[in-house]
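Researcher: We're teaching a course module on how sequence relates to structure. For the next exercise, students receive a sequence and then see the predicted structure as tokens, so they can try to spot secondary structure elements on their own. Here is the exercise chain.
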Amino acid sequence: MEALGNLFRSCPQWYYYIWLKPQLIDLLKRKTQIAIEYCYRFREKHPHAHVFWVHASTVARSGQAYRDIARKLALPGCNDHQVNTLGLVAEWLSDRGHGSWLMVLDNADDTETLFSAGTYTLIHESERPAALFSYIPKSPKGSVIITTRDARVGERLADREKPISVRPLAVQEAERLLRFKLTQDREWGEADIAKLLDTLECLPLAITQAAAFMSGVSCR
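Model: And here is the predicted structure for the students to work with:
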């Protein structure tokens, strides 16, 4: 979280992305939780700024998110099916006169969804079909966080910037989490804890589930 905050303060680009290794499926929820937590902190620091969440996993969810944003902002034409809502939102947010904002593109993993021209077909035949990434707004007063399992997608969307990698917990952090989750009526030795954390690979969700199971068994 601190690394993400430092990036926003020190770097001029608009895009930042959070990436996790594909094999660490247990961390899927964690990268989203990091983005959610940052949104809360951003809102506390900038109470008058807009915060938007776009589920970028599919064409349908992305399109719906942009329609929701258009309605939330009460943009002219937001309910007109003849209007390109994605373009409407991108144009409005790219205008620096409309103030500060933060947008999260969550689960931006699918290359075709993000980059294939024609995926988002425009209404007017004279307009060339464009991919979702063409509708990501750019503004000196706005920032975009991208969460993804594909580092190539993140780099392309973030203009080749380095990612904030979501990794397993450090051993000490993992031990604190495990001891916090376990019931207090049983003492756990250092050797037992170390062996368990090694088996769980210090993954937070695995630790939480294992602790819940062990606590349940000990209560019987």
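Model: If you want an answer key for the exercise: The first strand starts at residue 15 and ends at 19. The chain is about 45% helix and 10% strand.
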